[in-house]
Amino acid sequence: MTALTLSTAGAATLRADALVVGVAKGVKGPVLAPGSEAVDKAFDGKLAAVLATLGATGAEGELTKLPAASGLKAPVVVAVGLGPVPDKEDAYDAEALRRAAGTAARALSGSKKAGFALPAGSVEDAAAVAEGALLGSYAFTAYQGGENKLAPKDAKSKDSGPKQPLAEVALLGGKPRDKAYKAAVERALALVEEINRARDLINTPPNDLYPESFAAVATAAGKEHGIKVQVLDEKALVKGGFGGILGVGQGAERGPRLVKLAYTHPKAEKTLALVGKGITYDSGGISLKPAGHNETMKCDMAGAAAVFATVVSAARLGLKVNVTGWLALAENMPSGNATRPGDVLRMYSGKTVEVLNTDAEGRLVLADALTRASEEKPDAIVDVATLTGAMVLALGNRTFGVMANDDAFRTSIHEIAEEVGEASWPMPLPADLRKGMDSPTADMANMGERMGGGLVAGLFLKEFVGEGIAWAHLDIAGPAFHEGAPYGYTPKGGTGSAVRTLVRLAERTADGDLG
Asked: Is 29 exposed, middle or buried (0-12, 13-18, 19+ CB in 10 A)?
C-alpha cells in the first residue's frame, strides 16, 4: 500500500521524484490551479505558457511531464488536467480532484515519492486528493514477476518484475497540524486500504479464491479489527434450510458458505445490514454461459467484497453504528449434481422457487441472506451485487442502479453515491413486472420478463426482505470490473465499486441521518 503523508515542506523544497500540479482548461489556454504557485514561481511565472507550448490544455485526464526548473528540488513536474475552470477559483469539484490525483499517481508508478501540489485549501479538497492518489496508485501484482526457471542461474534479467506502485504520496498545501486535516487523511488511508483489499479479492483467480478461502480472509480480518465473524459451512447451511445458497453451490466441488461479520459500537443507536453477492466463479451452471462470457466471471463476488470492505472500514474508523455484513458465497458450476432448470428450491424463508435459468443464481443466494439479515430487525438493509447484464445495457459500464422499497431511502443512497464520486442512477420497481415470475409449480420462479430484467431481479429480491425494513438494492454489474484501459483512479480489473457509498451511508447513519 502506498504511504500517505501531510507534508510540512513547500513544493519548492520537497525532495521527491516528481511534483504534481493541477491545470484547468481556460478559454484562452491552460490555467494553473491553486497549489502550483511555488512551482510557477520557479518557472518565472511562465509555467502555464510552457505547458501551452507543449500542447497542454487542462482537459480532464490530460497529463504533461516536463523537466523541473532549477529552483525546485524535484527533477520532474507533472501537470494534470482538471477540466474546465470553475466559477470560483477555489471551487474545484472533489471528483475532478480525485481523478486528477489518480491519473498522476498511475503515471508515476515505479517512483519512490511524489509531492501532490493540487488544490488542498479545504479539508474536503485534501481528502479528495488523498483518496484519488491512493486509489490511482493501486496495482495487482501478486501473480507477476515469478522466477524464470529456464534462465541461466547466473543470468541477470533486465526485467526485474512488474513495475511497483508509487511508494509515497506527500500531500502539499494542507495543514499538517490541523486535527481536521489529519483526520481526513487518516480516513482516506483506511478507506482506500480496504477498497484496495476488495480489488485484490476481485482480481484473485478463482482457483485461489473460493467460498472457503474467502471466508478465511474474512475471519482473519475479523480477528485483526475486533469484528465478530460467523461462518456457516455446508452442514450448517443444510441444518438451517438455506436452500438458495445450497442450490447454487451444489454443482461445485468446493462448497458454499454464508459469512456474517458483525461490527458493533457501544454507543450505536442504529444498525445497518449489508448483504453481498459472493459468487466466486460463475459459469452459469447448467445454463452455461456462451464462449467469451466466462473469462471475467471471477468478479461475480464483487458485491461480497464491497460489503466486507465496508464492515472493516466501519471498524477501523470507529463509527458509532452497528454494521452487519452478510457474504453469500458459492461457486456456480455445472456437474451431475448441479441444480437443473426446472428444479424447485425451498428457500430459507420457506418460499419455493422454480429455477428456470441457473445463470440467474445471484438472486438465489441473496434471497437467503436477505431473509436471514431481516431476522435481526436492522434499521435498514442494502444488498450489493453484480446481478444482471440488463443493468449494464441500461446504464453502461460506469454507473450502478439503485432500487428500493422506499423512495426516500433510494434517493438518499443516490445522493450519497454522487457525493462520494460514484456514478449511480435511481431505478423503479414496477409492480406489473412481478406477474412474470409466477410459477405453476412453485411460489415463484427465478426469472420473469426479459425486458426490464434488472428490475425483475430487484422485484425478486424485494420478496425476501422483512416487513417494515427499509431496503435498497445496488446492481453494480457495470462498474464492478473494468476491462478497458485505466482512467483517473480506476484501474483495469476490480474497482471496489460501492464501497465509498456504503461507508458514507454508515457514517450518515452513525450521525442519525439514515435517509
From this structure: middle
